[in-house]
Amino acid sequence: MAASDNEKSRLDEAARAGWLYFIAGHTQDEIARMLQVSRASAQRLVSLCLTERLITFRLEHPIAACMELAARLKDLFHLVYCEVVPTDPAAPLSAAGIAERAANVLESTLRSEKPTIVALGTGRAVRAAVERVLPIDCPNHQIVSLVGNISADGSASFFDTVGRLADRTGAQHYPMPLPFLMSSAAERAQMLKIDPIAKVRAVAAKADLRLVGIGQMDQRAQVHIDGFVSREELFEMMRLGAVGELTGWAFDAKGRIIDGGTNRRLTSIPPQVPAKALTIGAAVGPAKVPAIAAALKGRLINGLVTDETTASAILKQP
């Protein structure tokens, strides 16, 4: 027998309380303030979440509002996969929720008996997802980087994820041992012909799953903050119409890869347009809304993991 509307609403509240407690790490006092209930009610909701097995070590109950947003995004942009998680009221920019769901996708993929290739971008959300993957013994799988992992000063990227996931899985892994940007388009062309680099790119081209971050292209762009592009290079791409980047590839408001600027010197694997393999973008926050919306419009991704607030804002984009 179907649960009544009141029962469904109560389970939604319990699932939300459970997410805030077990995933976001809030106290019951904090949850009570966020949900505008008494502390005793918050405690009962968390207990109900456990009793009804809505959560184990991951949130299992699909909160109705999140499900509805995910369905609308999936339908509007013809997505293969879409997950929307609750927004943490105390930390609206937190990647904890989306990292947990992205980790779930990685684990599900890597538990397959069929040899599988997983390709990873870089960034905070992707790294946070990798950190949440439980140890799995899957030596028949392959993990490959989509992005050059050396910055302009020669240092390795802190957000490189391939080696970390390989440590947790025992899978073969293929880092991209190249600078993020070369000094010229001609130098880039030469480097891509080197046999080991060509082999890594060939593995990436056959990936069954691509998990990538989506970056904004403004003065707070992560590719600039992390030292991969200079201020001048960033401003050049903005003048060319860039609103976002995917594995470093800058694109405009319609999701078109820009022909010029740093894109001509970038060593990252280019996005498939339209995305063919399952390509999931993981991103959250108001500053990233234009970039996420553009990536969806341009079909640079066919999967998305985000939160309620970001999802609602994307749906309001013209």
Describe the structure.
The chain is an alpha/beta fold. It folds into 2 domains: 5-51, Orthogonal Bundle (Arc Repressor Mutant, subunit A), CATH 1.10.10; 64-315, 3-Layer(aba) Sandwich (Rossmann fold), CATH 3.40.50.1360. It is built from 13 helices and 9 strands. Strands 1, 2, 3, 4, 5, 6, 7, 8 and 9 form a 9-stranded mixed β-sheet that branches. Strand 8, helix 12 and strand 9 (303-307) form a beta-alpha-beta unit. It is globular and about 65 Å long. The chain starts with a helix and ends with a helix. The model has no long low-confidence stretch (mean pLDDT 91).
Keywords:
318 residues, alpha/beta, Arc Repressor Mutant, subunit A, Rossmann fold, nine-stranded mixed sheet, 9 strands, 42% helix, globular
What is the number of independent domains?
2
Give average pLDDT, whole number.
91
Count of separate DSSP helical elements: 13
Largest sheet, in brief, is: 9 strands, mixed
Number of strands: 9
Q: In the CATH scheme, what's the topology name of the largest domain?
A: Rossmann fold
In CATH, the architecture of the largest domain is 3-Layer(aba) Sandwich
Question: What form results from the Cα inertia axes?
Answer: globular
| Share of helix, binned | 40-55%
What order do the helices and strands follow? HHHHEHEHEHEHHEHHEEEHEH
Distance between the termini: 41 Å
CATH class of the largest domain: Alpha Beta
What percentage of amino acids are in beta strands?
5-15%
> Oligomeric status of the shown chains?
single chain
Rg estimate, integer Å: 20 Å
Instruction: Give the helix/strand class.
Output: alpha/beta
Low-confidence stretches: none
